[in-house]
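Possible regression after last week's pipeline update?

I re-ran a chain I had predicted before the update to compare outputs. Posting the input and the new output here so someone can diff against the archived version. Not blocking, just want to make sure nothing changed silently.
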Amino acid sequence: MLEANTKNASRRIRRLCLAAQGLLHERPFGSGLDGTRRAIQHLGYVQIDSISVVARAHHHVLQARVPKFTPKMTNQLLNSKDIFEYWAHAAAFLPMEDFRFSLPYKQAIKAGQVHWYKKPDQKLMQELLARIRADGPLKSRDLEQSRSKGSGWWDWKPAKKAIEQLYMRGDLMICDREGFQKSYDLTERVLPANVDTTTPDTEELAAYLLDQQLRSSAFVSLKGITYLRRGAELRNATKALVNARIDAGELERVRLDNNAVYLCKTGTLDKPLPRVKDRLLILSPFDNSVIQRERLKTLFNFNYQLECYLPEARRQFGYFSLPLLYRDKFIGRMDCKAHRKTAVMEIKNLHVEPHPFDDNELAKAFSAALRKFAQFQGCESIELRTVNPPRLRSALSELESLDKTL
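New output (post-update):
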């Protein structure tokens, strides 16, 4: 087992992780629509979330990595069948070429495993399938509009549950999306003819998950490979696969100075140290690089929690604090809200942790990142409220002049 217990080794691991995530360079996947496609293929998934305090998570994740990305591009890729929607560890956009790896979970739900609903309405599900088969795709808004008509089985809540159950078990796919209004169609009408639909066995699924995470993160923990996925069988297969690859010399274990053990491809630590720029990124709480909080803490020494799920009295940093990555360190968080009607980006609380960087250089990088981020939200001005530590406010004086000038 390799011992990575020096400052230089820790820095090397951080940078290799961030480079694999596409967060060290400005155009790691290219730009525009092609860059968006390649980013999703490389990352393996991009989580979808409905919280709209700032740009939706799936757009935010891609905006951080792909120059000239626009929110309409995810739906363009959905329409062109380059990606599809399903469950990874949460709702996500996934590469269409990975479709077969969604089948084990769909089949488990069809066999009775509970995802959301314990007692799905089978009769209603068959009626919905028949309607879609005869009339074509059904929009989620069609169900909403029907609830006011008192038409029995079109009651909103049962119909929504039924269509979501059909989607989760694989009978339906999402063929179009306008914001959070989804259109459902029969799976056989959505899938491209050349997509592999053979169901992978447990060992194949374990290999897919391991390879995906090694590609997109460089360093992975045994627990993190099956992050939020159920089943002892999959965990056991993953452990067996890891041991086999270690025995074959394909993987090696790395022990950090905090005794956390990670896996990487053999020779990863011998790669050239990726360079970093004086660039700051404002990341989504659902970004692929931060979503595994334990990994974030052990690899980057950044203890992060999304506090919107906590009672207000227990929040330390704010409702929707966004992680801040400067160079190769997570240095703080920013609680903000995009007021779209007034085109104002309100920074409620900027909190920067103790760091080795020059305050003026950090403030310059933050100002540049915030200007770009605000413009992506459609905001024309910035209002800065609380800054911690207070000494940073003078370094951020440039932000005061950004008001009404973006």
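Follow-up from reviewer: compared with the archived run. Residues 20 and 216 are 5 Å apart (CA to CA). Marking as no regression found.
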